[in-house]
Write a structure and sequence with these properties.
The complex is a heterodimer of chains A (438) and B (473). Chain A is an alpha/beta fold. Chain A has 12 helices and 13 strands. Classes of the chains: A alpha/beta (438), B alpha/beta (473).
Chain lengths: 438, 473
């Protein structure tokens, strides 16, 4: 099997034309020592057999379409209208819109996406997406360090531990220093920020799900001349105060909650929004409105001197491929729901999460951990190791209890609820947890 | 008429999807201080308006599904439809579900890792990076950690990059905290070996190369380059953007490369999606394996698991395990083609490029480095023609143009990569169009395109007065 259209006669004719005798001949100028290495791969399969093999692999998974697992990814409704529109071949099989005259679809959709992210975050500009929330955070912090010319970063322990791990790897590379602000009572304390600090990072709702008032921390950052970077779930911004309103200079997050499949962790997309003043420090792509030769409105990639293919070693980032298609899905989701629909989905999850919290606390041995109010998830202290609880629940067909790293405390697990869950789902989880902990 | 923005189609109170039956009151759940004062100005449209809007946008966009897309160094080959169905089989998995309930997904990752190791000649692999450039960063961080571990982190501060390299290479080295030095290409378009020798030494951390290079030429002296690198203690990095040309025929590992990144969205048919998401696994030789990011998929007595216990690891470069649904597509591609199919694909990508090169030469185009090209080649228009105008003229004739003005070492460069999934008649029609352009009056070319959704756009205005959101007045 392959996807090439050539007939044998055509191949022969083309070979003659280029002066080669055979396909092997096309590689004759490569060093003989490295040509035709032995490579062990399975035999090719016909299309139906590939699908059958994949279905066999898929059958070894227990899918989690209504998971109660939190930790940066949650089960949400993936609207078929979004899936259908994003699957159109023109969107799916296009490349970076370097030729704007035939790329107005992607360019305009991206301009609309940028607008929606700016609206959600209460900031002025957004780039055309990053790989995911964690790398968006790293790029956002690097932006802050470029802008302030400083090399120290303070990050709240309320920021997702995997995001912090990615941030650490990126910062070590440029020799910047990272300090973690431990949570107190599940929230970030506000401390005076020293002048050497270039960026302070908080997350709301934080990793444990709690809502935090980050305004005092943002103020402390600004007093020291540092920029404040907020990590925020974009779905939460349907109801919560936007980062721009509590003093964030940069907002980042992951778009999975905007109707994207969980996909075992990816691909999702990261968003990165900031103030217009910092636009020339932004990594990645930006789309601007402009006019064409006839004065007609059109869209084009802009400020490309920030980018690797123009500025090379002096670029703001090395990002080339981003997450255009998944960001497009996020924008379609936002447009499909509108402000009211988004608010409803966000609020429904909050109500269900609080209901689930109270139900699970009825189970003997379970203790609260995340302070109220929280968003769509919360942490509980379990009387057993969370990995074991998660496994025992999975054996009952339920996906719940994301193990929380030990840095936050012993035997902690995250539970989440979203618009997908009904009262009977919550009751079923309580019952199962009771059995598992009995 | 301008195509309306979704915001211009919006009407207050119009509704699309309604996902919630009973809507709780915000004030009952969340203290006022946490609530936003005004709703975000998102569009308010019904579902049909939404469908027409995005369907209309899609018709203002070309992709491989609609148009020949010979974008050099970007490998725009056909994306099999099977893969979309394959990915859907794994959409409902949560990254934090009990690994025992995700054995199929872990097995797929493990198997894909084995296939990619076999195809690249590497000993260990991470599937975590989200794109080629992200893989580059990962690879360079791994190299950095290795040098530091050996006590040479402070001395090896330089990364060498050929002048024909992708822009992401120098940008990556710079993001990883390195100084970057360009190495010139020789008159034959390959790395100037003498120049490289002069630069090599105990202050160099890595050389970043792609082979075939961005002129579409195979670096024939690669074994000598890797020997020199090894002698100088320098790590050799392989940019996998051009692997399509040699897949199955030759392996970076056998050429002496220490690190390889792959672009699953180029070589292994994961759709580019208007610029992403991609996937950029990184393979390394055994001496670099301890530094790979965590977690790695491992195989134990009780099945597959995620190994995080790797004390020398550079940490994490992305959340979770990478762009998993891209991995599913790459797995399907490899299983469909097997080694014979992959080798045929690579050979036909080379044959298509060489055939098209001959056709274009016949039409009057020059090929400044006319060695045996691999899957792509760089052409120049005859004197008096601008690459940009030819690109715009091609749009009028219904083709997506090649990459223009890259690599930087060729003036008015047209970098053509037909890929193996295009037919002989498509290549011939494209060459005809390229020939036709040279017959057009100068004014026609300078004003093309004419019938595209928009005509030439004012880029200077966008740069000087960027308008980046609808509400930005």
């Amino acid at each position: 099997m392959d996807y090439t259209p050539h007939t044998e006669a055509e191949i022969q004719e083309m070979l003659r034309r280029v002066g080669a005798e055979s396909l092997e001949d096309l590689f004759r100028h490569l060093p003989a020592e490295i040509l035709n290495p032995p490579i062990d791969l399975p035999e090719p399969l016909p299309e139906w057999a590939v699908l059958e093999a994949l279905r066999r692999l898929a059958a070894q998974n227990l899918p989690a379409p209504k998971a109660f697992l939190g930790g940066g990814v949650r089960s949400h409704h993936v609207p078929p209208v979004v899936q259908a529109l994003a699957s159109r071949g023109e969107f799916l099989t296009a490349y970076t819109p370097y030729q704007p005259e035939v790329s107005q679809g992607v360019l305009q959709a991206t301009f609309e996406y940028q607008t929606m992210i700016a609206e959600l975050t209460g900031l002025e500009v957004a780039n055309a997406s990053m790989y995911d929330g964690a790398t968006a955070l790293a790029e956002g912090v690097l932006l802050a360090l470029r802008e302030t010319g400083r090399m120290v970063v303070w990050v709240s322990q309320g920021v997702h531990p995997e995001y912090r791990a990615v941030l650490k790897a990126y910062l070590e590379a440029v020799g910047a220093e990272l300090r973690v602000l431990p949570l107190e009572g599940g929230r970030t304390p506000s401390l005076p920020v020293p002048e050497a600090v270039g960026a302070v990072v908080g997350q709301n709702p934080n990793y444990l799900g709690a809502l935090e008032d980050l305004a005092p921390l943002a103020e402390a950052a600004h007093r020291a001349g540092a920029l404040f970077v907020a990590v925020a779930d974009p779905l939460s911004l349907g109801v919560l105060k936007p980062p721009g309103a509590y003093g964030a200079d940069i907002a980042v997050g992951d778009g999975q909650s905007l109707g994207l499949p969980m996909g075992y962790g990816g691909p999702h997309f990261g968003y990165l929004a900031t103030k217009k003043a910092f636009v020339r420090q932004l990594p990645g792509r930006l789309v601007s409105e402009t006019v064409d030769a006839e004065g007609k409105r059109g869209f084009i990639l802009t400020l490309q001197a920030r980018e690797q293919y123009i500025r090379r070693a002096k670029a703001k980032s090395n990002i080339t491929t981003n997450a255009q298609l998944t960001a497009l899905m996020g924008a379609m989701y936002l447009a499909a729901l509108g402000p009211e629909g988004l608010r409803e989905v966000a609020l429904r999850g909050v109500a269900l999460a609080h209901r689930l919290h109270d139900l699970l606390l009825e189970v003997p041995g379970v203790e609260p951990f995340t302070p109220k109010p929280f968003f769509h998830e919360f942490a509980l202290r379990l009387p057993k190791a969370p990995e074991a609880v998660r496994a025992a629940l999975a054996a009952r067909g339920l996906h719940a209890a994301t193990p929380v790293p030990r840095e936050y405390g012993e035997n902690l697990a995250l539970f989440a609820a979203t618009e997908l869950h009904q009262e009977e789902d919550l009751l079923a989880l309580r019952k199962a947890l009771e059995e598992v902990l009995a | 008429m301008s195509y309306p923005l979704i915001f211009e189609r919006s009407r207050p109170g119009r509704r699309g999807l309604k996902l919630v039956k009973e809507v709780p009151r915000a004030e009952d759940l969340i203290p006022k201080a946490f609530l936003r004062e005004a709703p975000p100005r998102l569009p308010e449209v019904d579902e049909l308006t939404l469908v027409r809007h995005y369907t209309g946008l899609s018709r203002r966009q070309v992709g491989v599904d609609t148009t020949f897309y010979p974008l050099g160094s970007c490998t725009m080959k056909y994306n099999p439809k099977l893969h979309e169905e394959a990915a859907r089989l794994f959409a409902d998995l949560h990254p934090y579900q009990d690994p025992k309930t995700a054995q199929g997904a872990l097995a797929l990752m493990w198997e894909l890792g084995e296939y990619l190791k076999a195809l690249t000649g590497m000993d260990a692999i991470t599937l975590q990076p989200a794109a080629g450039a992200h893989g580059e960063l990962t690879g360079i961080l791994v190299i950095r950690a290795y040098h530091e571990d050996r006590g040479e982190g402070k001395t090896r501060r330089l990364v060498l990059v050929p002048d024909s390299a992708h822009g992401s290479n120098p940008a990556t080295a710079s993001m990883a905290g390195y100084q970057v030095k360009e190495v010139p290409s020789g008159p034959d378009g390959e790395v100037d070996l003498e120049a490289l020798k002069r630069e090599l030494g105990p202050h160099v951390a890595a050389i970043m190369l792609t082979n075939p290079n961005t002129l579409g030429l195979f670096e024939r002296r690669i074994l000598e380059i890797s020997r020199l690198a090894k002698e100088a203690g320098v790590q050799l990095y392989y940019d996998g953007a051009n692997l399509n040309a040699i897949l199955g025929w030759a392996r970076p590992g056998d050429m002496g490369f220490d690190v390889v990144h792959l672009n699953l969205h180029k070589t292994f048919t994961v759709p580019h999606g208007g610029g992403g998401p991609g996937s950029g696994p990184v393979g390394v030789k055994a001496h670099l394996a301890p530094y790979l990011p965590v977690p790695l998929v491992a195989r134990g007595e009780e099945g597959f698991y995620l190994d995080v216990d790797r004390p020398k690891s550079i940490g994490r470069v992305k959340s979770f395990y990478g762009n998993f649904l891209a991995l599913v597509r790459a797995w399907a591609y490899i299983r469909t083609l097997g080694l014979p199919g992959l080798k045929k694909a690579a050979a036909l990508s080379v044959l298509n490029a060489r055939y098209l090169k001959e056709l274009l030469k016949e039409k009057g185009y020059r090929v400044p480095y006319d060695g045996p090209c691999m899957h792509e080649f760089v052409a120049q228009p005859p004197a008096g023609f601008r690459a940009l105008d030819l690109a715009k003229g091609l749009l009028e004739l219904g083709f997506h143009p090649p990459t223009v003005y890259f690599p930087l070492i060729v003036k008015e460069a047209l970098m053509v990569e037909p890929t193996e999934t295009e037919s002989k008649e498509t290549l011939e029609a494209f060459a005809e169009a390229m020939g036709e352009l040279l017959q057009k009056p100068k004014e026609w070319l300078e004003n093309a395109p004419y019938t595209t959704p928009v005509r030439r756009l004012d880029e200077l205005r966008a740069n000087k007065y960027p308008k980046l959101t609808f509400f930005d007045r």
